[in-house]
Design a protein that fits this description.
mainly beta, 0% helix, 4-stranded antiparallel sheet, 120 residues
Length: 120
Amino acid sequence: QVRLVDSGGGLVQAGGSLRLSCAASGRTFTSYGWFRQAPGKEREFVSVINWTGETKYYADSVKGRFTISRENAKNTVYLQMNSLKPEDTAVYYCAASMAIMNRIDQVDNWGQGTQVTVSS
């Protein structure tokens, strides 16, 4: 059974940092990543990493501030989020795919989501 368990969200002031974690089990996917959904908005791509960790992509809105990484021994993917802005407030969802994903329709499995709130 495939499981993605994401965690690490919370409340932080603008300019602060958070690190999200996604623990995967059940199978190995081609890529793992993060999407987010703000209130009243569609779910959007944030970042992706392939299973070797050699390929990484970021949404323009987070480039230079967020860093995705993975720890194969723990089968865990991380999203280090620095210089957070109020517009980063959203529910962040871990995702896994047999493709190098950047679209919702490419996602094969989702985590349950973790809330990130950035206060101004």
